[in-house]
Amino acid sequence: MTTRVPAAIQAIFETSKDELARRIETLDETVAALLDGKLDESLRAEAERDAHKLAGSLGMFGLPRGSELARELEQALAVPDGPELSEAPRLAELVLALRSQLDDAPAGSEDNGDAVPPVSDGRALLLVSPDPALTERLTVEALKRHLRPRGAESSATARGLVAAEPPDAAVLDLNCPGQDHEGLELLADLAGNEPPVPVIVLTGSEALVDRVEVARRGGSGFIQRSSPESQVVAAVSETMERRDRAEVKLLAVDDDPAISEALAALLAPVGLKVTTLNDPRRFWERLEAINPDLLVLDLDMPDLNGIDLCRSVRADVRFGQLPVLFLTAREDTASVQRIFEAGADDYVRKPIVGPELVTRIQNRLERVQLLRELADRDGLTGVATRRKSTAGLEDLIALADRFGQPLSIALIDLDHFKELNDQLGHAAGDAALRRIGAMLTTAFRGEDVIGRWGGEEFVVGTYGMVGADGIRRVTEVLESFRAEQFTGRDGRSARVSFSAGVAEFPRDGRDLTDLYRAADEALYRAKAEGRNRVLPAGSPRSASRPPDAPPR
Amino acid sequence: MSHKHILLVDDDDDIREVAGISLEAVGGWQVSRAASGVEGIAKALAERPDAILLDVMMPDIDGPTTFERLQEDPQTRDIPVILLTAKAQTADRRRFEKLRVAGILTKPFDPMTLSDEVAAILGTQARLE
Fold first, then answer.
1. What is the Cα–Cα distance from A238 to A403, expressed in whole angstroms?
2. Which of A29, A31, A392, A433 could form a disulfide with A449, with the two C-beta atoms 3.0–4.6 Å apart?
3. pLDDT digits over A137-165, tens only?
């Protein structure tokens, strides 16, 4: 009779989880209110009650640490006028830890727990500013978003913090005269870290910060120093989420937690984000949430076996191309046959031999990435295809709109391309296209969108950059490009230039159609004025030629 | 002794459920449940349980007040009462000990051992399973 008790308690826990989460939510709101200086007595009392209830109940659900954390919160909240503001960071960390207790709690009585990856909760955020007041305001905002802020007044302090714990993102205030060199070096180091740390740079209205230089050093984005702190931190979260989407994700389903842990330990060093699932009943929910790049299945599991899971995955069009790798203790022909019949791509024998598993997983991923590259990359120039770059530009516009940031879109078209092909041959024409593709790729950042839109037409979208800066960078590319010689079959050679039109969001348009039209109009004017130049959208004919535009 | 009857008074649904299952399944008690001090007093009068497990912190009338009311009524005066209290309230603990309660149990409790602890306090080591 008694053996059923844990299962019954687990069932109660499952039904109570939402209520427990709601109580943690109240505690979270209370800390946010404290940070805002808006904590009133009724909320404080409610939070104290909720902390008390959590303290009393989490332990009986097998979460004694949860009870301790809740108890600490209860004690901190049980003061007449509420806790001091200085207590807020500690309370925020307690709430965070409490939340992860609940999130990490075993899902079923026979389940040893899933390694649920945190969303952006608990991520370390480095704040570098010589202005302590600004750092403090950003700290408050970061705590509200469940990040772990670490403030530094100087580059030296920042380096110390980075050495102790590489942050998941950084906000860098470059707005201090005389220190921008140090700041830029710190930026380059963060961007060159392995894995790279996304850095949002704060800029002032005065042109102290050279946006082009920041972009060159690997800055992930800009935001006005005067923007509300909530917007700055939202931009950071957004950047981290974008980076997450770019990560290679692997979902491993195995009822043996030891195997799941071993997988995570083996694969994390090679840059794979491993999510393990020990309860196959939650498979679909997790598969859809994680949308992995590779699936590792155990052949023999209770409730559902790997073969069934694999078949169901293959039956869903969304996951038809998902690479599936099996782990199996069996080696007989029939089992291997069953694995491949179910639609698996490969299998690895248990016990797992580390290097073999890593190699096989990497092989699978390379194949998929190759297929993806073929679909998204222009074969000749290596830049994104029209389809891929259109989607990329749409994303950048949405981002710029959300954070009130500028965005520049340049439309680039090679001059006299038909004549080049006619006179020097198509090989020289292709060489020119390849070269411009390579130059644009080097000149712009990974986050920028570079695409080939037609025969000799290219597009470049740069987030956080106003049109004038966009024109400057495209002009630099033009200067290098037209210095190069392209040689034809008969040994004759020629130089090639291009014309470009640059539009700026939101000044010249708020959606891709309008921005494209504005940039195209400027490109047309550049061609009409004699080619070999970069012109801004919307400016009247022959006026406002950029100061460093190429000579006619 | 056949099935002993215990009344569980706690405003927290989870604790009522978990403690209830624990006392029933592990300890073999017959369990009645009340979600407030007022309901607890009413059920104690109506059902005359063999013991009462009473939460300290409840809205309206709290555990100690409920206990005092039970003491005031000759019909319920002799029912042993175990207070269920949070670990933090050590200062309060002394106050509870001065009351004539049968014992004090702390939250969170382990559902697998709760009934043993209750039995130990009540001096009835007999497991009814």
1. 10
2. A392
3. 898 888 877 788 888 988 888 998 888 88
Q: What is the distance in angstroms between the Cα of B99 and the nearest Cα belonging to chain A?
A: 22
Report d(CA B27, CA B7) in Å as an integer. Answer: 14
Cβ–Cβ pairs < 8 A, chains A and B: 74
Instruction: Evaluate whether A455 touches A529 at the Cβ level (below 8 Å).
Output: no
Establish whether the linkage from the previous residue to A106 is cis, with ω within 30° of 0.
no
What pLDDT was estimated at residue A373? 65
| Any B CB within 8 A of A60 CB | yes
H or E element that contains A252 = strand A248-253
Give the list of residues 6+ apart from residue A144 with CB closer than 8 angstroms, or none. A31, A32, A35, A230, A233
A23 touches chain B (CB under 8 A): no
CA pseudo-torsion sign A353, A355, A357, A358: positive
The predicted-structure confidence for A469-517, as pLDDT tens digits, reads as follows 889 999 999 999 999 999 887 888 899 999 999 999 999 999 999 999 9
Q: Any CB–CB contact under 8 A between B129 and chain A? A: yes
Contacts of residue A275, defined as CB under 8 A and 6 or more positions apart, other chains included, come to A114, A115, A116, A117, A249, A250, A251, A252, A286, A290, A292
Average pLDDT for B64-77: 92
Q: Is-catalytic flag, A456?
A: yes
Backbone φ, ψ for residue A337 (5° rounding): -60, -45
Q: Which residues contact A524 (CB under 8 A, 6 or more apart)?
A: A501
Dihedral angle of Cα A379, A380, A386, A392, to the nearest 10 degrees: 80
- Structure-block tokens of residue A59: 């332990």
H or E, element range at A326: strand A324-328
Q: Based on C-alpha coordinates, what's the Rg of chain B?
A: 13
Contact A5 B21 (CB under 8 A): yes
Report the C-alpha gap between A201 and A225 in whole angstroms.
9
Interface confidence, given as ipTM, is: 0.79
Angle at A35 between CA A34 and CA A40, to 5 degrees: 25
Longest dimension (CA), chain B: 38
CA of B83 vs chain A CAs: smallest distance (Å) = 13
Is B110 in Cβ contact with A12 (below 8 Å)?
no
Query: Could you give the CA distance from residue A273 to residue A289 in angstroms, rounded to a whole number?
Result: 14
List all residues 6 or more positions away from A124 whose beta carbon is below 8 Å from its beta carbon: A147, A148, A150, A165, A166, A167, A168
Contact assignment for A56 to B15 by CB distance below 8 Å: yes
Is B14 at the interface with chain A, CB within 8 A? Answer: yes
Cβ <8 Å between B18 and A57: yes
**Minimum-distance CB partner of B21 among A8, A19, A59:** A8
pLDDT tens track for A104-137: 776 543 333 333 333 446 788 999 998 888 888 8
The C-alpha atoms of residue A377 and residue A451 are separated, in whole angstroms, by 9
Contact B86 A9 (CB under 8 A): no
